[in-house]
Specification:
Layout lengths: L6 E5 L6 H14 L10 E6 L4 H7 L6 E4 L16 H6 L4 E4 L2 H6 L4 H12 L4 E6 L3 H5 L3 H16 L8 E4 L13 H16 L3 H6 L1 E5 L7 H5 L6 E4 L6 H9 L3
Parallel strand pairs: 1-2, 1-8, 2-3, 3-4, 4-5, 5-6, 6-7, 7-8
The protein binds 2-phosphoglycolic acid.
Length: 255
């Protein structure tokens, strides 16, 4: 089995001001040193578009990588309010979240749109963090695997399996996001294993190497138990990534 490098990604969502962004980044930078594990784990911060330049500059002398939270499925053109891959490249963005459940559910991004976005990102040097996950009713109806397989297959059918060699998957059960109701490590591990198996049906080596991270109420006090699971390669952190100390504790929980 491949030793996968753990990844902890912050998803700030629509939070922050220039002042709070500066103070958060400074808190994270001050806390992340070689001695406490920086280097072993990859850290990504997915910021709102308008802070890309500021955060890129602030992260210049660190190993922390810049990301963002969404991108257009189109290359360029008459799409008012949208942001293209090229624009993200201009600002040194290296990761982009694709298909977050808030995009799917609040902004009606269909499986097809998510697949189009993933395919578009895959043609660039930016790494997509593809989010999948079931709603509470779906879990209760025993449909978790069916939903996750459907979301994944739509992307594989559009883009093929090869792009997953340079992608990250985030399993984010919708019922766990922002609710404080974290999936138990066993519940999460079961779905992570299932996702890996789905990919292995197409390509063993990609399935073995891809990082599958967990998101949904990861906190300083539950991160370690989640990250100990063999198929959980890190986390996508929302609320807790807005507090430097909590985010740092989560980052250090990968070891
Ligand atoms: P949360 O969000 O950590 O606040 O639950 C996670 C996410 O939506 O990526």
């Amino acid at each position: 089995m491949t030793q996968r490098r753990p990844l902890v990604a912050a998803n700030w969502k629509m939070n922050g001001t220039l002042a709070s962004v500066r103070s958060l980044i400074s808190g994270i930078k001050n806390g992340l040193t070689k001695e406490n594990g920086a280097g072993d784990t990859e850290y990504v911060i997915c910021v709102p578009y308008v802070y890309l330049q500021e955060v890129r500059d602030l992260l210049q002398d660190t190993d922390i990588v810049l990301g963002t939270q969404n991108v257009s499925e189109h290359e360029h053109g008459a799409y008012t309010g949208e942001i293209s891959i090229e624009m993200l490249q201009d600002y040194g963005c290296q990761y982009v979240i694709v298909g977050h459940s808030e995009r799917r559910n609040i902004y009606n991004e269909s499986d097809k749109i998510v697949a189009d976005k993933f395919a578009r990102v895959s043609k660039s040097n930016i790494v997509p963090i593809l989010c999948v996950g079931e709603q509470l009713q779906e879990r209760e109806a025993g449909l978790t695997e069916e939903v996750v397989a459907r979301q994944l297959n739509e992307v594989i059918n559009k883009a093929g399996v090869a792009p997953f060699a340079n992608a990250v998957i985030a399993y984010e059960p919708v019922w766990a996001i922002g609710t404080g109701m974290t999936a138990t490590p066993d519940q999460a591990e079961e779905v992570h294993g299932f996702i890996r198996l789905q990919l292995a049906r197409h390509d063993d080596s990609i399935a073995d190497k891809i990082r599958i991270i967990y998101g949904g109420s990861v906190k300083a006090d539950n991160a370690k138990d989640l990250f100990l699971k063999v198929d959980i390669d890190g986390g996508l952190i929302g609320g807790a990534s807005l507090l430097a100390q909590d985010f740092l504790t989560i980052c250090q929980s990968t070891r």
